[in-house]
Design a protein that fits this description.
This protein has about 210 residues and is an alpha+beta fold. It has 7 helices and 8 strands. It has helices spanning about 5-20, 30-35, 40-50, 70-75, 75-95, 140-145, 195-210; strands at about 55, 65, 100-105, 110-115, 130-135, 155-160, 165-175, 180-190. This is Helix-turn-helix domain-containing protein.
Length: about 210
């Protein structure tokens, strides 16, 4: 902590991070232990966060992330999209394929940014806002592989015809971006994905991840 920072705000943000990392919530005692402060401090932090709907407590007294976080989250997608666009444009122009950034939204994959190549006679139309199950399409499969820790070899996912007949896809997960699950990929009209596409998609995913850190 420096002279310019707020200890109370710092602790409140740590509470939110701790709660975001658990599915079952945390008790006051558990938060007190993890933060290294007494229970009275935790009670005050939770009461303040509850006033802003950032935290809720269930009947058993366990604290969980509140719905107020969703209002803040609505502003995340535009920021993420803006950071990703340079890498997506380069990817689309290099491969002549539609490039996209896809994030997890519940049990679905949500395309939040899409860039189409400018020089091709035809390409796959793929729109921001498009949703599909995580276990279908290269974008979702890359995310699931990252969850399972299976991204070392080859480091990207390839699919054909899972979301659109005649279209093939390649995607690589975003790695090392705290609090964000997603992938960068391309979709093209082809029976199979050319060899160089997978490594190029991995390169673009790293560029986006670096921009978001």
């Amino acid at each position: 902590m420096t002279a310019e920072t707020s200890q109370t705000l710092d602790r409140g943000l740590k509470v939110l991070k701790l709660l975001a990392d658990t599915d079952h919530g945390l008790t006051v005692t558990e938060l007190s232990t993890k933060l290294g402060v007494n229970r009275t401090v935790v009670y005050r932090l939770l009461a303040t966060l509850e006033q802003h709907a950032l935290v809720r407590r269930d009947i058993g007294g366990r604290a969980r992330v509140g719905l107020g976080v969703l209002r803040l989250g609505r502003q995340v997608h535009p920021l993420v999209r803006e950071a990703a666009l340079p890498a997506l444009r380069s990817l689309a122009e290099d491969l002549g394929a539609t490039a996209h950034l896809t994030l997890v939204d519940g049990a679905e994959a949500l395309a939040v940014a899409v860039v189409e190549p400018t020089w091709t006679d035809y390409h796959v139309a793929y729109r921001a806002g498009f949703r599909h199950p995580l276990d279908r399409g290269a974008a979702g499969r890359a995310i699931l592989a990252a969850r399972r820790g299976e991204v070392d070899n080859p480091g990207y996912a390839l699919t054909h015809g899972e979301l659109e007949a005649g279209a093939s896809g390649a995607a690589a997960p975003l790695l090392g971006v705290s609090g964000l699950e997603g992938s960068v990929g391309v979709v093209m009209l082809a029976d199979s994905v050319p060899v160089r596409v997978g490594p190029r998609v991995m390169e673009a995913a790293k560029e986006v991840a670096d921009a978001l850190r």
